[in-house]
Amino acid sequence: MKKVCMTLAVATLAVAGCSKTNNYTPAAGASNEDIYKAACLECHKKENGKIFELTAANGSASAVAKKVTEGGLMMPSFPNIKGEALAGVSQYVIENSTVK
């Protein structure tokens, strides 16, 4: 029972800590890779030269952009990544990810 309670406590903290808004704003002229490294790398580390696996449903830059903007269960939203920066980092994720 103690192990179950501890697991629930950790899961609750993880969800609460990761599902908030992240106020990161890309610097003017930041490259797509720079934006990725500053905003995404902490949670989406590269393995074998690729970022992570995308499901077929997430295999488009527009789906990635939506996830960046809106966030998700464990991912914060990044409302300050907009326009060309959002399109660029979304394309960077697609080009550097594997697709399931």
Q: Over all CA atoms, what is the radius of gyration?
A: 15 Å
| Gap from first CA to last CA | 36 Å
Percent of sequence in beta strands: under 5%
CATH topology call = Cytochrome Bc1 Complex, Chain D, domain 2
Could you give the order of the helices and strands? HHEHHE
Please report the first level of CATH classification, the CATH class.
Mainly Alpha
CATH superfamily placement: Cytochrome c-like domain
Count of domains: 1
Shape: globular
Mean pLDDT: 80
> Which class best fits the helix and strand makeup?
mainly alpha
The CATH architecture assignment turns out to be Orthogonal Bundle
What's the story with the biggest beta sheet?
2 strands, parallel
| Overall helicity | 40-55%
Could you give the order of strands across the largest sheet? 1-2
Secondary structure tally, helices: 4
Quick structural summary:
By secondary structure, the chain is mainly α.
How would you characterize the overall build of this protein?
The protein is mainly α and 100 residues long. The protein has a single domain (2-99), classed as Orthogonal Bundle (Cytochrome Bc1 Complex, Chain D, domain 2). Helices cover 48% and strands 4% of the residues. The protein has a two-stranded parallel ribbon with strand order 1-2.
Please name the defining characteristics of this protein.
100 residues; mainly alpha; Cytochrome Bc1 Complex, Chain D, domain 2; 2 strands; globular
Fold topology:
Layout: H1 2-18, H2 32-39, E1 53-54, H3 61-70, H4 83-95, E2 98-99
Parallel strand pairs: 1-2
